[in-house]
Amino acid sequence: MKAETYKLFLDVEQGNLTPEEAQTELLNLLSVTHRKDQKTYIGEEMLKCKSGVYEVFWKSGGSSISAIGMTYLGQRWLAPTNWTNGNDEQDPTGRLHTQLDSIDRITLLYSG
Question: Which pTM does this prediction carry?
């Protein structure tokens, strides 16, 4: 694990990866899906998940640590921590139901 992490830092320093690409690769290395107590949701099940912190696995590859909450109207919202530009057309921040086609699965990391 240390060697892979170090290689990512070198790739960024040498210009082989952008910091964003390195973050995605690092999240893949640190994936917690090996947990035995995980709760994974797929498809329409994602709309019934409880509020919490999740690892979101994108169909396009990679994953994001994301907060998922609920509006006062009962709609789920999604806020990936590695997406920061609210004006980007591909920014997935917003209503979870609008992103279902882009998400392979979500795995619960923490719920209070």
Answer: 0.61
